[in-house]
Amino acid sequence: xxxxQQVRTSQDTQLLPNxxxxxxxxxxxxxxxLAIAVSGITYLRGxxxxxxxxxxxxxxxxxxxxxxxxxxxGASQIVQxxxxxxxxxxxxxxxxxxxxxxxxxxxxxxxxxxxxxxxLMDFESNTNSKVSTxxxxxxxxxxxxxxxxxxxxxxxxxxxPDSVCLNMKLAYYDDVTPQDYQPPGFKEADGDTIEFEREPxxxxxxEVATPFHTxxxxxxxxxQRLEQVEESVKVTEKWVLKMEEExxxxxxxx
Length: 254
Description:
Cell Cycle, Spindle Assembly Checkpoint Protein, Chain A, alpha/beta, 5 helices
């Protein structure tokens, strides 16, 4: 048992470091968190079979990571999309306009902003709301909390419809992005408006900060799907998922 725990700790340290000292290190952390988040969402929402995933650990939390599998072309397509996202992030082309979010049942949005020190990356719903800033002194601890929140929420949400289509969309800064640029796996998009068929609820989950990037995690889902998380709680317009460091899950309403 002690040997297994030691191996997990070593893998965890490599996956998410305690400190980030350079922009390149920060970029690697952002890519890993993006991969963990997207993989976790697709796994826990039942979009692909078990064989499409490998497993890793973030602290004591087992996380499933999408991989390219010949017998599962859908999963391979998502992996290729992610690689295209990584290229665009590294080139500093990514931009997201929260006011121009098509017809969806659940929405996740990664927003990238670049500063003098590097990029600011938000993973959030179509809302301009702000959450409190976390210290960037311990990136690993903040990342662990964020991953736990994501997995706790995904494991308790109501199911998606039997037939769903996964779509990924990128937006760029026009003044710095080459006119004909499209990362691998992407094409020029049509339409900017997103609409929910049923009443949506916006959820704020938290953030991870480094000296070069900040990643905020929010999502939007249908109200009836969220009510299955805890039927005794009346969901209000803004629902905030809060998890204390010791692992206690609580709900905070605004």
